[in-house]
Design a protein that fits this description.
The protein is mainly alpha-helical. It contains twelve helices and two strands, in the order ααααααββαααααα. One of its GO terms (biological process) is phospholipase C-activating G protein-coupled receptor signaling pathway. Keywords: Cell membrane, Disulfide bond, G-protein coupled receptor, Glycoprotein, Membrane, Receptor, Transducer, Transmembrane, Transmembrane helix.
């Protein structure tokens, strides 16, 4: 399923021979166990973190601003990945032997890719929304209009990703390996999945450049402009949050998405034209690509004030602020009592002076 690309782009027949490096990968038990352990941890953190996030975003956050709509969209894709990963864990632990059929293989592969690229596009949308709100506040001032644009944007993201990944939906992604008596799922692709080398080039270009590199550049530009704007306005607290948000988003891009997409492109080029492979490195990079689903709740925390407040309440992180609030209330109470005493004292003084003044 998740071994994205072509360790061996074979001919049309499922009985084609695989190279020794590919066969060695399928027999590497230690690597399979290590990858499975990472997936188990990611699944647990994903389902807990994004389950809580979804509950807060849907039922405890109001009104539904464009940023909240984008966050809900991102959480849906993360939870879909969290539910799909257990199948990948089982596949790894069974020695790359897929026994759930071609349809399930294609469906779960689509779930993974959709999560990755919808996450990238959604993070770009959140960055654009913050850019418009802080750097260009006069644009799209009407809240209802911005909400409609956010909903339409989410639908367009899904449409774009599904169009690019359409070949994966219409191809049998399983492959029989008689030497090992296993059936792989998306770890070996048939060369006839696409009609020509040009079609493969277009497919890879769309994934790497349109769905990754372009959104990365737009997101980086937006956060740099936001930070510069806040720095010039001297809003220290807001600037610090913007910097943290930008740091987390760019961390997700550079750690989770960049290695995976760069290795995908490099491996495919080497495989198609030079009969070489980077598949082992690419396979390991898949683990890092899953981490984005664990980091997304931190993006929500810094991107939405309402979400941040609700999360602090849920996690009892408001204790310090509550203590500060109690201190402030105590000071205000003392000030009120002091003012009352002064008022009463002044009134008494005026009463005692009045008979003397009348005389």
């Amino acid at each position: 399923m998740r071994g994205h690309s072509h360790p061996n782009m074979t001919g049309n027949s499922s009985s084609a021979k695989l190279d020794n490096a590919t066969l060695a990968l399928f027999q590497d038990v230690n690597t399979s166990i290590a990858i499975s352990v990472i997936y188990v941890l990611v699944t647990a953190i994903n389902l807990v973190g994004n389950g809580l996030s979804m509950w807060l975003l849907l039922f405890r956050t109001s009104p539904k601003s464009p940023s909240i709509i984008f966050m809900i969209n991102l959480t849906v894709t993360d939870l879909a990945l969290g539910t799909a990963l257990p199948f990948q864990i089982s596949y790894q632990l069974h020695g790359y032997n897929w026994n759930l059929g071609p349809s399930m293989c294609s469906f779960l592969t689509m779930v993974f890719y959709t999560n990755m690229y919808c996450s990238i596009l959604t993070m770009m949308a959140i960055a654009i929304d913050r850019y418009l709100g802080i750097v260009r506040p006069m644009l799209f001032r009407e809240t209802r209009e911005r909400k409609s644009i956010a909903v339409v944007s989410c639908l367009l993201m899904w449409g774009l990703v599904l169009c690019v990944l359409y070949p994966l939906m219409t191809t049998d992604l399983t492959f029989d390996v008689p030497e090992l008596e296993i059936t792989t799922c998306f770890d070996v692709l048939k060369i006839n999945m696409l009609p020509s080398v040009s079609a493969w080039a277009a497919f890879l270009f769309s994934m790497v450049f349109i769905l990754f590199l372009f959104p990365f550049c737009v997101t980086t530009f937006c956060y740099i402009r936001v930070i510069r704007k806040l720095a010039s306005d001297s809003k220290t607290v807001q600037k610090e949050r913007a910097i943290r948000l930008a740091f987390i988003v760019l961390l997700v891009f550079t750690v989770c998405f960049a290695p995976n997409n760069i290795l995908l492109f490099a491996h495919a080029v080497l495989r198609l034209f030079y009969e070489k492979s980077l598949y082992m490195a690419y396979k390991l990079s898949l683990c890092f690509s899953c981490l984005n689903s664990c980091l997304d709740p931190f993006i929500y925390y810094f991107a939405s004030k309402d979400f941040r407040q609700k999360m602090r309440q849920i996690l009892n992180l408001h204790s310090l602020s509550s203590a500060d609030s109690m201190k402030l209330e105590h000071k205000e109470s003392l000030h009120t009592e002091f003012s009352k005493v002064r008022t009463e004292s002044t009134a008494t003084s005026l009463i005692t002076k009045r008979p003397h003044e009348e005389s």
